[in-house]
Amino acid sequence: MTPDLAAYLDRIGFAGPLQVDLATLTGLSRAHVNAIPFENLDVQLGRQTARGAAAVHAKLVAGGRGGWCYEQNTLMGWALGEIGFDVTRLCAGVMREQAGDGQIGNHLCLRIDLDGPWLVDVGFGSSLAGPIPLAAGTRHDAPFHVTLSQTDDGYWRFVETLHGAPFSFDFISAPADESLLDATRIRLETHAASPFVENLVVRRRDGERHHTLRGKVLTTASAAGLDKRVLATADELVDTLDDVFGIEMDEAATLWPAISARHDALFPAA
């Protein structure tokens, strides 16, 4: 299947002008993260994730699904390139600050060159609502507080903080090592110790709110704070995926025994 830009724009609900400018880039980024959730359901089901623009388009656009960073930013990068933006794929390392250089390749983000370089990332848990200039600074991206800085060893460090809990990734602005990205993606979708194999993670931005389902725990973040509840049944899991994240997948009910066992291991009864 050949990817279809019009179908992508319809999927994210974007009807604005398609110009190579910051307004279009911002509108597309915001529409994407509000429409397409981050999710690792294929990894949880033991399936290979989508590779390449055509396969990712078939899954996230035609199939109405979400995806993880490799899929989300591949789709976004393809769409921006079709419109005429100057797109560079970047290798990044989530939590490199804590775990070191071995993390590089566990995340894909994008550099877009307009009047200067901009960071675009629709795959970091669907949290970043728009492009940010590739320059040191801070911004409020409700409900997140975002900081971009340079490290002593030449990396850029993106940090988002949500009610006191920081989460970061490091990257350099040079074109990605695609072989490293591919090898890391395979490891993350297959290795038993991968956090994506161990845990169901689904995330979606909803305006200035942000929803995260991690295993059985659904958290909604807003300016008012964090609201948490624990899902109780497989049916509730399926309903939550549909109602909160827009994912229709009855098959997700088969994951419930493993999700429940993982929850009990992490949060043993007192």
How would you describe what is shown here?
The structure is a single chain. This protein has 270 residues and is an alpha+beta fold. The chain has a single domain, classed as Arylamine N-acetyltransferase fold, CATH 3.30.2140.20. It is 35% helix and 27% strand. The chain has helices spanning 5-12, 22-35, 41-44, 52-62, 69-83, 96-99, 178-190, 195-198, 234-243, 256-266, and strands at residues 38-39, 86-94, 107-113, 117-120, 132-133, 137-141, 144-150, 156-162, 165-171, 201-206, 209-214, 217-222, 225-230. The chain has an 8-stranded antiparallel sheet with strand order 5-4-3-2-9-8-7-6. Strands 1-10-11-12-13 form a 5-stranded antiparallel sheet. β12 (217-222) and β13 form a beta hairpin. The longest helix has 15 residues, at 69-83.
Total beta-strand segments: 13
Estimated radius of gyration: 18 Å
Q: Assign an overall shape.
A: globular
**Annotation field: number of helices:** 10
Q: Any idea of the CATH topology?
A: Arylamine N-acetyltransferase fold
What are the low-pLDDT stretches, counting only 5+ consecutive residues below 50? Answer: none
Mean pLDDT across residues: 93
Structural class: alpha+beta
Give the end-to-end Cα distance, rounded to a whole number of Å: 52 Å
Q: Percent of residues in helical segments?
A: 25-40%
Spatial strand sequence of the major β-sheet: 5-4-3-2-9-8-7-6
Order of helix and strand elements from N to C terminus = HHEHHHEHEEEEEEEHHEEEEHH
Please tell me the CATH architecture by its name: 2-Layer Sandwich
Report the sheet with the most strands, covering strand number, pairing sense and barrel closure: 8 strands, antiparallel
Number of domains: 1
CATH class label:
Alpha Beta
Strand content: 25-35%
